[in-house]
C-alpha cells in the first residue's frame, strides 16, 4: 500500500494513534534518542539516527524475569513478570536498524522462543524513514546487503519528499496504522514515485564507506582464526564494550539474581545486556577462560557477525550502521579491520 | 502465552551424599519436583539449577533417563551457585529448568561395546550412559570403565564403583602412588594405553578435565579408534541454556543447545577455542 501524507498533516496522524505509545526522534545531549515525550509532533529535519538503536525498546538494557520469595511455610513462590501489554509505534527507524531487528528475531526465535522479547516485539510497529543522506560518515549498509531504503524488518517505510512523506505500508500492521486516519492520506502520483526513486538512488551514491565482497569474509576469517592478526588489531581495545552495547544486532545478555531481603528471602532475577568484550563474559568459575584476551574477544565479535551468523542464518549479523566505528573511543574500525582481514596472508 | 523458558520449576533436594571431602569437595544431590514428575531427558543432557538469590549453574544429569523418581547431579564446589548448593540440606528447595543440550546418541550404539573413560567429576555425565547401558544390558556389547582422579579420596561414586566390579571390568587410577593402592598409578590416558580397549565395534565415551580429554583422544587414536568412535562433552560458561545469551559458543555452535556432546569427528571441525 502506497500513500502520500503532507508533513502538515503528520501531527494529526500521530493523534489518530492514541492507542499506542509513540516514539519519535528527539535531540539529546549526546545525539539523537527515541523518546515517547508527548510534545513531539514531527520527525525533525536534521534527524540522523539514534545513538542507542531501537533494539532497546524491544530488548531493554535491563528487565525483570521474575520475582522470588521463600518462607518456611509456603516454600518458594515465583512471580513471572512479563512486559506490559502496551502497543508501541517507533517512528524514524532507519532501514539498517529495521534489518537489525530482523536479525534479532532470528536469535530470539527458533526452538526456544524468548517470551520477554516476543511479548514486546509483537506489540511493536516499526515505521522506518529512508535515508536521504547517510546518517553517519561511517554508514556502509550497501556492503552488507542493506540499503538506505531497505524495507526489511519495517512495517512502514517513509521517504521524505520535502513537504510530504511517501508512505509505503509493508505489513498488515503497517497498513492498519494508515486506516485509522485514512482521510489524511492521498494516492501518490507519478511525480511522487519518481521523486522517491530519485532520493533512494542518490542516497546510495552518497554512502562513502564500503567493505567490498563481504561474502568472501567468512572464508577469510576462518583461514586466519589462529593468526596473530587479531593480536595486532585488538591492541588498542579498552574493553569498554561500547561497540556491542550500541550495536543494533548485538544481543548477548547476562542473568543475575538481585536479593532484596534474606529472611524471608526475597528478590528477583534480572536480565541485562552483556558483552563478549568483557573478560569475565566467558570465564568459568574455575578461572579458566576460553577467550582470555582482547585478541580472542575481537575475533569473537567479528567472527560472530561475519562467519558464525552466516553459517547459522545465511546473513550478516551486521547492518552497516557504523555506530561501532564512530563511537569506539580508540578508533577500532570494523571496516578497516575486516578489509585487512581479507587481505591478511592472501 | 507459551511456556516461559526462563521460569524454573521448584525442586526439592531429597538426598545428599558426600562423594569427596577436602578442598575440592563433590556432593551428589537427588532432586524431585514439588509440582509433579521429573521431565524426560536424554543421557548427557544438562539442567540449569537455581539457588534463588545466588543465580543459576548448568549441571549435567548423572542419573539414567530410565530412573524417573528423581534427577541426580554430582557437583564440584566451585563458584557461587555450586558453593550455595553445597550448603544445602535434604528438604532444601532449588529451581530446575531444562533439560538442555543434545545428549549422547545412544540409540545408534545398540550392539556396540562401550568404553567409558572418566576423570574426576567428569564421571557424572558418563554415569548416566553407563547406568542406562546396565539397565538395558542386552542392547549393548561389552562394557568397560576406566576412571581416575588425583587421589583415591577424589574418586566419586566409590561405593557404586565397587558394586560395579561384579558386572563389568572397572579400571581405576590415581595420579600419584598411595599406601594400600593396588591399581594403576598414573594419568587416565596412560591407563587407557595400559588396558588397551579394542576399537572393534566399540564406542569410547570420555569426559573429564580438558587436558585429560585431549590426551585420552590421542591414546584412543593410537589404539586404532576412529574419530567418529570417540565421544566427549564440552563445558563452557552458560547463562540462558538456550543458545541466546552468547557466551558458550565454540564457533557457530552453542554448547548449551548444540552440545555438550560431540564426537571427536565433529568437535575437531570447530575452532579450538574452549
Describe the structure.
Chain A is 30% helix and 22% strand. Chain A is of the alpha/beta class. In chain A, strands 1-9-8-7-6-2-3 form a 7-stranded mixed sheet. Chain A has a 4-stranded antiparallel sheet with strand order 5-4-11-10, with no helix packed on it. In chain A, helix 6 crosses helix 9. The longest helix of chain A is centred in the C-terminal third of the chain and has 20 residues, at 294-313. The relative contact order of chain B is 0.14. The longest helix of chain B has 13 residues, at 123-135. The N and C termini of chain B lie far apart (37 Å). Chain B is globular.
Q: Key features?
A:
heterodimer; A: 346 residues; alpha/beta; 7-stranded mixed sheet; 4-stranded antiparallel sheet; 30% helix; flat; B: 274 residues; Elongation Factor Tu (Ef-tu), domain 3; Rossmann fold; 2 domains; 6-stranded antiparallel sheet; 6 helices; 19% helix
Catalogue the unreliable spans of chain B: none
User: How do the strands line up in the largest sheet of chain B?
Assistant: 10-9-8-7-11-12-15
Beta-strand content bin of chain A: 15-25%
Describe the largest sheet of chain B: 7 strands, mixed
How many helical stretches of chain B?
6
**Oligomeric status:** heterodimer
Kindly report the average pLDDT value of chain A.
Answer: 96
Q: What's the overall geometry of chain B?
A: globular
Low-confidence stretches of chain A: none
**Quick one: how many beta strands of chain A?**
11
Order of strands, widest sheet of chain A? 1-9-8-7-6-2-3
Number of helices of chain A: 11
Number of domains of chain A: 2
Query: What fraction, in percent, of the residue positions of chain B are helical?
Result: 10-25%
Rough outline of chain A: flat
Structural class of chain B: alpha/beta
Provide the number of structural domains of chain B.
Answer: 2
